[in-house]
Design a protein that fits this description.
alpha/beta, eleven-stranded mixed beta sheet
Length: 489
């Protein structure tokens, strides 16, 4: 097959071609690195590339496929990993100066599961520093640009992963989602991103931002790829006390059916009001109409508690971040200031020089809300709001199988626009963060473009451990769009 034909395939399609010996693992990897050489100087999707290791790994995987020991659908398919997941012997930076030369001695469980399935890891993708940001502009290794229009951001914090998939610099990638960090950049880059229920995928080896909110998930070209990847990742891990035993009946690929007849879909009125771009609103309502035409029951309803999601999230996430990031002190590993006077001065200078402005902002906010006199007023109140948000979703799922809405109120902003106004950037997470606060699964599926040609994403939210519902709805919608495109040719 020609290079262009290989790059046009989805991960599952490529895996099938490799198994049928139409493409070799090496040919697939060569196509990816050729594309990286073409696009990477402009886009900056990767922090670290391991070409030599990747080709060695591809040879081993090819042997396993030829011998029949590797039979999974992802065997031989080149993938990328967000740079906050540890890989033994591969630099892992969290896109921060404080970890610029850190090389872990162990591998994250999610990455290990991909490797056992025959994935070939290309490298580590760029991200907002310590996953704190919505644009991938806070990275210490430069901004990542949106492949649809390089003057615009790819979203964040998994912007490198989503941009790499959109630019065909890998066939799929792993991201992490603390408040929308898989779904929002997937929406901005026109790819599909799935945030699983909290506890579905092991967080062992994921460098923590907000431990009660973080979740690893797949970014890929379509819903089928995401379902297959999640099936590979999901399952209990004894090294992660928050990971859940996924039942054998939860085979996510079984939900890949073009049938939503009788499915109950709710659209929160709170999501469709002020602040939502009219073009985004139109695309979301058009998507809802498609599902309705296919037999789904679509209704508007009042979700409630939406206005409390952003303050609750930023209090809880910042509090957890201030605790999690206290380990980066210049003593045990990572960056240490060259000149200092005594231990306390070393702490102060190492952290001041090693962390970027957005990380410092959130550490200070987190330390403030956890401090004596403010703990009850802010942190405990935020935890109560979190519980009420979960209750609001529980009530909604008594009536609906899936909640449908936008991923972001706008399409990808221009580079530099968001960083000048952090509060505006935080408000852009309004539709995604509730999902993390309630521990729910969420799926972002491309549903159109705006007048500037930038992608718009549709968000489908399910009840806890009901990924199959959102996969089913997303797959049915995706099939309709594919049929529309075929008819328009």
């Amino acid at each position: 097959m020609k290079e262009k034909e290989i790059l046009s395939l989805t991960a599952v399609q490529l895996g099938k071609k490799i198994k049928e010996k139409e493409v070799t693992c090496r040919e697939a990897l060569e196509a990816v690195f050729a594309q990286i050489r073409r696009r990477e100087p402009e886009l900056n999707c990767y922090v670290t590339l391991e070409e030599e290791k990747a080709f060695k790994q591809a040879e081993e995987v090819q042997r396993g496929i030829d011998e029949g020991t590797l039979t999974g659908p992802l065997a031989g398919v080149p993938a990328a990993v967000k740079d906050n997941m540890c890989i033994e012997g591969m630099r892992t930076t969290c896109s921060s100066k404080i970890l610029e030369n850190f090389v872990p001695a162990y591998t994250a469980e999610a990455v290990e599961r991909l490797r056992k399935a025959g994935a070939v890891i290309v490298g580590k993708t760029n991200m907002d520093e310590f996953a704190m940001g919505s644009t991938t502009e806070t990275s210490a290794f430069g901004v990542t640009r949106n492949p649809w229009n390089p003057d615009h951001v790819p979203g964040g914090s998994s912007g490198g992963s989503c941009a790499a998939v959109a630019a065909n610099e890998c066939f799929y990638a792993l991201g992490s989602d603390t408040g929308g960090s898989i779904r929002q950049p997937s929406s901005f880059c026109g790819v599909t991103g799935l945030k699983p229920t909290y506890g579905t995928v092991s967080r062992y080896g994921l460098i923590a931002y907000g431990s009660s909110l973080d979740q690893i998930g797949p970014v890929a070209k379509d819903v089928t790829d995401c379902a297959v990847i999640l099936e590979t990742l999901a399952g209990h891990d004894t090294k992660d006390s928050t990971s859940m035993e996924v039942q054998e009946s939860a085979r996510f690929t079984s939900a890949l059916v073009d049938d939503v007849n009788g499915m109950r879909i709710g659209i929160p009125r709170d999501y469709m009001g002020d602040g939502l771009d009219p073009e985004v609103k139109e695309a979301i309502l058009n998507a809802a109409a498609v599902l309705k035409e296919k037999g789904a029951v679509v209704e508007e309803f009042d979700l409630g508690m939406v206005e409390y999601a952003i303050p609750a999230y930023y209090v809880i996430a910042s509090a957890e971040a201030s605790s999690n990031l206290s380990r980066f002190d210049g003593v045990k590993y990572g960056f240490r200031a060259k000149e200092y006077d005594g231990l306390h001065d070393m702490y102060k200078k190492s952290r001041s020089q090693g962390f970027g402005p957005e990380v410092k902002r959130r550490i200070m906010l987190g330390s403030f809300v956890l401090s004596s006199g403010y703990y009850d007023a802010y942190y405990l109140k935020a935890l109560r709001a979190k519980a009420l948000i979960k209750e609001a979703f529980d009530r909604a799922f008594e009536s609906y199988d899936v909640i449908l809405g936008p991923v972001s109120p706008v399409t990808a902003p221009k580079l530099g626009e968001s960083l000048s106004d952090p509060l505006k950037m935080y408000l852009g997470d309004i539709y995604t963060i509730s999902v993390n606060l309630a521990g729910l699964p969420g799926l972002s599926v491309p549903c159109g473009t705006d007048s500037k040609g930038l992608p718009i994403g549709l968000q489908l939210i399910g009840d806890c451990f009901k990924e199959k519902q959102i996969i089913r709805a997303g797959y049915a919608f995706e099939r309709s769009r594919q049929q529309e495109r075929r008819c328009s040719r």
